[in-house]
Amino acid sequence: MNLFKPFLKDTTGRDARRLQPFIDRINGLEPEIQALSDTSLKDSFLSLRNEVQQRYATFSEEPDETILKKKTQALLDEYLPRVFAYVREAAHRALGMRHYDVQLMGGIILHQGKIAEMRTGEGKTLVATLPLVLNALIGKGAHLVTVNDYLAKRDAGWNGPLYQALGLSVAYIGHEQSAVYDPTVTIEEETDTRVAHFRPVARHEAYEADITYGTNNEFGFDYLRDNMEYRSDTLRQRPFFYAIVDEVDSILIDEARTPLIISGPAAESTSLYSTFAQIVPRLKADVDYKVDEKQRTVSITDSGIAKVEQALGITNVYDESNILLVHHLEEALKAHALFKKNKDYVVRDGEVVIVDEFTGRMMPGRRYSEGLHQAIEAKEKVEVKRESETLATISFQNLFRIYPKLSGMTGTAATEAEEFWKIYKLDVVVVPTHRPTMRKDMQDLIYKTEAGKLEAVIADIKAKQESGQPVLVGTISVAKSEKLSRLLTKAGVKHQVLNAKYHEREANVIMNAGKPGTVTVATNMAGRGVDIILGGVPPTTDDKTTWQAWENDHQTVLEAGGLHVIGTERHESRRIDNQLRGRSGRQGDPGSSVFYVSMEDDLMRIFGGDRLKTMMDRLGLPEDQPITHSLITRSIESAQKRVEGHNFDIRKHLVDYDDVMNKHREVIYRKRQRILKLDRESGDYSEVTWLHEELMDIMTDEERATYEAKVTQYGLPLVQ
User: Fold this and answer.
1) Is 591 a member of any domain?
2) In the chain, at which end, N or C, are there fewer CB atoms within 10 A of the end residue's CB?
3) Which residues, at least 6 apart from 76, have a Cβ–Cβ distance to it below 8 Å?
């Protein structure tokens, strides 16, 4: 624990006392603001905004970024109590919700540019409205970054009435469209009335809103696209100012291993992918190639090389002229030995679609690079798409470090506090819950074999279902969820399944997951951002009979012990396990959780070590008898820490590599922005003549011809 002391803070003690004066001042302003009419509330707030912007204008040209940041923060700190009081009252009037004191604490932490760790069901969506409104006062926009388009639209729509009550505009950026919240517009076909009031707008208009919701991918790709534009009037974004990253550990850590890449079509894919997709399956594991599961690598042996050369009819595959063959061989080996169908990817409508290992969700449009995706397509006998070449790229680490002020919120950040500080200079602060946590977390039950473990899981599910307790069963892949589903069906246990293959059922599955005796088998899809309400989702009708039925179900589940969460194996990341546990015991509800582990699970098999296996064998326990031993529990945690450390190293190397490119990227993008800002009407291009001349000197004849064609195309009268 000492390791995290510089990075991790807990507001249940000293930090809570430090924030209390802010809370007291906000609460003290409540009677005054409650007395305002709706019109006066909006007018008073807008008057305050004008005052803030006038004061900001007196130092906004400060050239030293550090001094500017400190002055801006001090200005907003001064207005924080009154602005938070306005937001709390607007939320009460427009949404029927009032921020609790602990939610005000969370809002202050986010405004301070830190990460707020808040438990499931503590209202992170509502908390974010406080610092978003406060930082939007400056007039440079505030961004809420979330993990998918649905959440961006939902949260912007849900909070739209609150922002509207204060005279602020809010928009969302989606993959398909961007739109601004407009209560005068109603989308008739939208079943959820809370997201039915959006008016489609151009992307740059959505970024001009006071507050903009969107995904990390959309913010990132728009940043790259803007830096590929040739005209200033086609730019989308304005300079970044402030962002809150929802599910911050997912976006800044889990997804940070994969950089954002804008690519263009390259040469047509060769037939070699299909050729090697036929050769590689004939090779024998451990004889013709070796797999290192810890490092996720595969290497071919001399025996394998000989077989490949024989199949291709060549004498030396590593000859200089066969360099292309070696590349295709390596990618085919990876596709065959390392990437598994219904775990790493699924085949849907004739396409290979990647499955996110952390969220369990499909990622359409994402493709593996370096020809790996084509190799998997050839392996699965679907159409092999064209290869691509990178046009622009940036890591998430460097994208989010562009924001002068960044903050985040999640239910699970403490285990990664060190990385948040080292990479992003973000402190993690644990926010106390509004009500005490009632969930009972049981010790792991460890079995010798997977078969014995699954038998025990089914027995546990049956017992809980009979008592009326809803059960959420977490699995680590599509294949594992389907295997357990088959066993439950065979055992006569009624259940529902949620995985990447059936993602369209998600809303309906989650809606019913809290009903008495309901069993839900899910991948990591059900582990993050999912709110399972005991008794099921409350009815939207005023019908008394319907409400009484829901009350009965709710009470039945409470008396049965709340939601019971079963983990069928440990994930590589402790945070993913904690996310699964966090579905139970929301807002002080009762609940329970337990993990079933076997020595045949991937984590234990690859990282658990031989000592554990030897000890289990010596004990001579039958397959269906579990053990709970502190040594094994510590070994599981140790294995997870080793994997987390390995993944941290991968991300750190990515940052180190991208930091080098980032220096070049910053210089080039800065020059591009200067050029785009030139006044075309005045015809004064003297500022870029030097750049033009430098380019002409260093370009080849072929590059010069392309460049001059562009100069002519865009009507730039530069020196020839």
Assistant:
1) yes
2) N
3) 52, 111, 134, 135, 137, 138
| Cα–Cα distance, 62 to 491 (Å, whole number) | 71
d(CA 542, CA 530): 25
In a shared domain, residues 460 and 597: yes
Share of the chain above pLDDT 90, in %: 53
One domain for residues 353 and 421? no
Element (H, E) at 390: strand 388-394
Residue 107: HSE in the Cβ half-sphere, 13 Å Cα cutoff: 30
Q: Is residue 404 located within the same domain as residue 532?
A: no
In angstroms, the CA 92 to CA 75 distance is: 26
In this structure, the strands spanning 142-146 and 242-246 are: parallel
| pLDDT of 690 over the 80 cut | no
Both 144 and 258 in a single domain? yes
pTM: 0.82
pLDDT at 267: 67
Mean pLDDT value of segment 230-239: 88
What is the rounded CA–CA span in Å between residue 302 and residue 324? 19
Query: Does the residue 647 lie in any domain?
Result: no
Radius of gyration (C-alpha) of the chain in whole angstroms = 28
DSSP state of 539: P
The domain of 327 spans 267-386
Q: Tell me how far apart the alpha carbons of residues 220 and 650 are, in angstroms, rounded to a whole number.
A: 21
- Summarised one tens digit per residue, pLDDT across range 652-680 is 888 888 888 888 888 888 888 877 777 55
Contact of 377 with 266, CB cutoff 8 Å: no
Mean pLDDT for the chain overall: 88
